[in-house]
């Protein structure tokens, strides 16, 4: 076998050494010279004893201390050995050797009187004993000047880093370094170094009985170290956990794998050492612990445990199955070869499993979410970290803490996962591939899984597709399907489940406890099984089977819901209900109807926003309207049903099967109104305690008792003799189909009703000739005669009177109040009738409708609308508004300041007494202002305007958007008595009767003033320079051509335009200067 070169460099030629005994152990006797001038002191002797023990530890050597007269083989003494050496060894190994410490002051080594580990004197003795055992210098540098035989070591290897027999790398007391090959430590070697051990063991054999147990190599932050580790078995550990300096721990052996651990020296504790620890070849150190610095830890071929501790550390496993544990910093963990366990600490780490089947383990009181390439960790202080970057991890273990943790491996796709919940109520989600172990631990723990696959769940297993997870201590589960048709079966699971089908036509089977089952979109079949289950059909046509116990169907959406026959729910689809004891329906933000009136169980209805209508069922329901104006509706379903309505309750009392009495109470919240409807029995409907809004009470058949609420209510007695009390507010009685006579305390029609606190009425006839009489009612009414020849008498208040919807002739009297009167169908133009409408007292509104109607506003300020056909309208007293509308109408304003408009057709309009405004509108109309100062506007057509008495204003044309006002019109203007104004233009330079034709005089469109007097005035647009007064053209026919007439011409670039004729008055253009006859508007 070839001797290693570094061993050859340490052995003398011929390799002299001490002989072995028969048992393979080399026994060497040594002594200390006894004479006082040669004698070692106590500390020097103790140092020798510790040093020889170091050699015994590494090799099969037994040093025996003997008295100096017992023939020792090595003797230690002090002498003056000159100025060139601190110590020397003379003699031949294997024969006899003297080791001297030089006491010459000029050569005395540091620590001469007290050699201790790490000082020069201690290493010098260790060096000289090495000579005594057969080791030479590794370079040609004997202290006494003599040569050292080769071979030698060179470069970095010729230093104290590798061997104590080198002169290079010794830091002296003055800070200088003997040699420059190694400066990684500020102390001297504490042990024989790496090559020394190899050479000694080559000569004497290794001591395989040293450190055979579990040895701890503990490094200190306050004590420097430079040395080599020799170990023989056990599970051994290098521990640098007390260090704050960055450490490099390499568990591999030999000259290529030095470690850097601890301070540079005892005096420089904040500077780190480099390459100061070696491990002898063949030694196996299994474990390593870093400190709080940024450490590097490298494993070997054994099964290593490498712990990062604090700091930003780098850990790399070796070729075996290793365990690497990160610390609190940002660490890099690389498992290397083998099936490794990597334990992450706290930090943003990079985790590489390497080759083999590698496992990542995380634990802590936090929420964890695993992805393909990293793990997200969220602590309960709200700190979120993407704490892992993952590569080559085939297995994942996550352990929770004492809080409610979420452990989610759902996006981990490299292999199986193990999740352990801990002490509280935790949530666990397995990985993508399955084959997981999910252990909830203490507390009520929940399993969550989702994917487009089918699931089967029991207490010990979850089968998802082709994979099976093992379950322990799982009390709840949440399983979610995908877009396909999924089957999710939890019927063998003892805990509660939430199952969501999502899209697709899914089959959901609940477990043995109380479950939530949601089909999502699609046509789903949902079976609750045992327990009190909540079923959500979602969109689509679903089968909802609650199974045993008390089960609930819950639906929501911005739609209306209707339950038919107690088993078919229409809303998000058409759902079939089986074994359902409760309903919970929620509307959206629009106004909807939620109707479960056929449901025999209990229902909870939530309207949400919008104006909603809520129909409760036959049980004790909870009805919540939500925002906006919401009402409840309830109809009597069996005999003798009575209702009592309060703000937060609807109490239903009735007679059920076998004549048994029953009471059902619905709870109300945010309800602003109600509709309560009786049946053929004698119902009592009492809303007197309801203050949130108006109610509608309908007794239907029978002799009913109706009590309204505190707001504005509508009450319908129906047939029979009813007692109706509106209560507070403005209340309305609503009836129809008969002749009615309404008084303040009674209504005779479809029975004889007794009325109290009724302020309004709405009465409708039928297809016959109805008589609706409210003349003795002091409130307001709406009377609708319907078809037939009807007679309507309004009440004392403000009424709406509608004659009917047929071609018959109705008679309507508004009576007192401000009435709105329609002679015909105010909703249709299909029928006609010649109606007689009388508004009576008050400010009335009358609508004639179809037919030749006769409308009288009577007293006060009325509005009359003739409608179609030829109508006659009398405003009578008050400031009235009369609108003839279509047909040939006659309008008479009567007393007061009236506004009259003929509308379409040839109308006769008379203002009568008062300062009236008359407007002919379309057609050739005749307008008479009557008494007082009136304003007349003929509108379109050839009109005749008579101002009559008073100072009147007459304008023949209708001014609207455009130009050519009065084109093709010839209007006759007769002012009558008084100072009248005849208007031929208006502000904005609007010129009347200008047809725009520059080639003619415009003799087909002009206005003729019949009775212009000295007190009258003509109003023109613009200025006097625009006009000329001259003779009238003969072409205007019989109406003109007389010499006494004067024509008013608008000057034009071609032929001047005739716009007016002043009959029997002769004027010239100079008369335009007279402000007595003319005025101009700009």
UniProtKB/TrEMBL annotation:
It is found in: Membrane; Secreted. Residues 14-184 form the Peptidase metallopeptidase domain. Pfam families: HemolysinCabind, Peptidase_M10, Peptidase_M10_C. One of its GO terms (cellular component) is membrane. Belongs to the peptidase M10B family. It comes from the Bacteria. Signal peptide: none annotated. The keyword Disulfide bond does not apply. The lineage of its organism: Bacteria, Bacillati, Cyanobacteriota, Cyanophyceae, Nostocales. This is M10 family metallopeptidase C-terminal domain-containing protein.
